[in-house]
Amino acid sequence: MKNLSDQQKGSFLAFVAVMLITPDSIFIRLSNIETWGMLFYRGAIPFIVVLTGLIFFYKNNLFKAIVNIGYPGIFYIISFSISNITFIISIQNTNVANTLVMIAMAPMLSAILGSVFLKEIPDRKTWIAIIITLISVTYIFHDSIEMGNFYGDLFGIITAFGLACNAVIARYAKNKDLVPSALIGKLCVAIFALFFVDNFSLLGTDLIFIPLMCIMCVAIPFVLVTIAPRFIPAEEVNLFFLLETIIGPFWVWMIIKEQPSIETIQGGVVIILTIAIHSFLKLKKS
Question: Has residue 224 been placed in a domain?
């Protein structure tokens, strides 16, 4: 990694993170545990795993690292916790494809937030892409209202906004280590879910699916996604989440035959093509 450029480091970290996240949706669908129980374990298990790693990494300086997160770290904890909670609520209340299409809005939202708070003003091509993706999401929303999925889609948009906030904050505080912030965020998620959990039992396949999901699809990726914006712009990190938009629903369709609506497919294709073309033009320009 030492011989790689910042662009290569950031892209590699973001790519690995998102590839590990892609089976997340199917694990959620295959589990039998109720929503709040799942949310508790998705907070508690990654917290324990990452805390163990940070203890070895920081040794006696862990408390100092937590204190050094500053105000950016506090805001990161808030946005990180909210996006973790709303993602599960969204997945449980709409099609997986709908949730992931909503999350595909994160790069465009990052560009808007980056222009406001980081003064990284998007060019005309980016604004055109933002308008097209917003129209596409509105189209999917209209379909979801008729199908009764509006609630889940709304939380999908909130998740996308949270991811955009996470990336912009990490970009703003790129000289700070925000992994301790993500760690505290996971603890906050577990504590929040604790008030609503009816049953902590893990039975049958949940004994395998839940720990595997929490370590492979949650703990490791959130560390990588927290580090990646130190090296590349926030919207570029979130562009890698388009891979999840494509691959995530494919796993769900292959294993449990959950098919998205034609409107979701149409809107999703427009969003993905728009951002893919936008990304190609930016890379060509650079």
Answer: yes
